[in-house]
Amino acid sequence: MIGATIKGDYIEQMFSEFLTRLVRPAPEPLADADARLALTALLVRIARSDGSYDRAERDTIMRICSGRYAMNTGEASALVAEAEQLEGEAPDTVRFTRAIKDAVAYEDRLGVIEAMWTVVMADGTRDPEEDALLRLAASLLGVTDQDSNAARLRVSR
């Protein structure tokens, strides 16, 4: 039990330090592992935004992580589990997304918007809450409406 408490405290401290770095006034570019975690947490946030985070959405996020980061199922599952925890502790979407914008290259942010559209459509419906959060996130990530719409069309095919 003591080992679990120490591990839990370590993980909580790790997330706290990560979030502090992420929301600094001028965050440094994220290391690959940190960028993966932050971007996956954003996918989890979009999936949870309609009040339902179902198996299809989680599986879609795992598939995105597996393909995007060349991960096996176990690695993708571990990343998604960490991202789920981080998303629950992350600040409001405005600060969280702006921090990602400052720390992640535009091309990577375009890929995130495409992945977000994939998650939105994973359960077969475009929920108004998901649409609204995606539009907000795209804007805060500095992605134009045209680029976001193009990403949605690529995913819809």
TrEMBL record:
* The Co-chaperone DjlA N-terminal domain, residue ranges: 36-152
Q: Which domain of life is it from?
A: Bacteria
Family matches, as Pfam families: TerB
Name the UniProt record assigns to this protein: Co-chaperone DjlA N-terminal domain-containing protein
Which species does the entry assign this protein to? Primorskyibacter flagellatus
